[in-house]
Amino acid sequence: MNKKRVLVVANKLTGENPLGKWTSVLHPFDVNIVNSDETAIELCHQHHFDMVVVDGTDSNIDSRKLHAVLPILQADITLLRYDGETPNELEDNVNAVFDAKKYKRIQRMLMLEPSISAFSNLPSFSLN
After folding, report:
1. Tell me: the pLDDT tens digits for 63-95?
2. DSSP label at residue 12
3. CB 22, CB 30: distance < 8 Å
4. Kind of pairing, strands 5-9 and 78-82?
5. Which of 39, 42, 99, 119 could, after both became Cys, cross-link 34 (CB 3.0–4.6 A)?
6. Which residues contact 19 (CB under 8 A, 6 or more apart)?
């Protein structure tokens, strides 16, 4: 099983990174941090990410641009806006999104799998 990759867009150059506590904790997924929306777009051109966490408290980051461009670059990417939640709440939100994606994949797989009764109605084999 591959590790999930999360891209965090937060301006860490100003010392006001509200996501600092959450990004400093050990996670079961890979966390990459960039400081601008343009850098996030460039990185999404080069690498695949499962989720992007956008710092909504920073006015220098254009979250509308990210919401418009990133789904075009990667169709299955999820954007999550951070609006000042606690690190535990943010962790719960991220895990909820990953769980929802997992359940959706399982549901799709179950719908594609034919039932056993579908094979009982097949006609008998004939050489004609």
Report:
1. 899 999 999 999 989 999 998 888 889 999 999
2. -
3. no
4. unpaired
5. 39
6. 8, 10, 53, 55, 82, 90
Structure tokens at 4: 């999930």
Residue that has been written with the tokens 């990667």 in this structure: 74
* Mean local confidence (pLDDT), 87-111: 89
Tokens of 48: 């695949």
d(CA 50, CA 79): 9
Residue positions counted in the chain = 128
Place of tokens 């990133």: 70
Q: pTM for this structure?
A: 0.79
Q: How far apart are CA 17 and CA 13, in angstroms?
A: 8
Q: C-alpha distances in angstroms, 81 versus 1, 51, 108, 116?
A: 27, 11, 27, 44
DSSP H helical ranges for the chain? 20-24, 37-46, 63-73, 87-112
